[in-house]
Amino acid sequence: IVQKTFVRDGTQEKSTAPNQVAGEILSFFTRNNFTVSDRGEIVT
């Protein structure tokens, strides 16, 4: 089992929208050959 924790820098000028963060995480998993069939799916 692999566990990943995503930590964002809190000192950014403008906070990132939750949809943007979710997109970045989805992109990470897609680049690492995971397939997400539904955007509401929980990756464990």
UniProtKB/TrEMBL annotation:
Domain of life: Eukaryota
InterPro entries xref list: CCB1
The name this protein goes by in its record: Uncharacterized protein
